[in-house]
Design goal:
heterodimer; A: 6-stranded mixed β-sheet; 5-stranded antiparallel β-sheet; 55% strand; B: 115 residues; mainly beta; 7-stranded mixed β-sheet; 4-stranded antiparallel β-sheet; globular
Chain lengths: 112, 115
Amino acid sequence: SQQGEEDPQALSIQEGENATMNCSYKTSINNLQWYRQNSGRGLVHLILIRSNEREKHSGRLRVTLDTSKKSSSLLITASRAADTASYFCATDGSGANSKLTFGKGITLSVRP
Amino acid sequence: EAGVAQSPRYKIIEKRQSVAFWCNPISGHATLYWYQQILGQGPKLLIQFQNNGVVDDSQLPKDRFSAERLKGVDSTLKIQPAKLEDSAVYLCASSFLAGGPGTQYFGPGTRLTVL
């Protein structure tokens, strides 16, 4: 079964607006990652946040992690048409050689 | 730095036929992963190699799927015989660190259609 559950399933915003996507998970994690997938392409790693971190920034991206609520959010500020893609959160459990488990993803459409 | 290479990009076969996919990871990456991504879903791990040894193949349908990573570099994933439900994108990824997933780098994928 897939660990991460993203919310909403689809999001449509105007260029320049902020986009917030949420991810919830069920079991303890080592870290949580967000990936982007453009149509017909492979996934691109965006950001990794460790279980002992609460917030992380990378350019226009801001990720938060609340381990008590088992949830994470990805904020994209000042969105651009090029941000149109599917976004996935992926979690890995504790222990060596643990594997990444992906959610079903969120489809983000940014209208020019 | 060259990315993860995969071939072919697209493949159409009939059910019960065989198919093979090839992956060349980023140079120096110890860990290689094969994922299956069905339309509308996230990637599901099929098999993970560390160098040329299998770390996790718990979700690989071993009656029809096989994979190998000879010499700890390139890898092939084979399906024999294919079923309709195998229609999906097959993604290869690699990561530098051994032990724990860390950041994974994905190839463009092979889109398989089984008719």
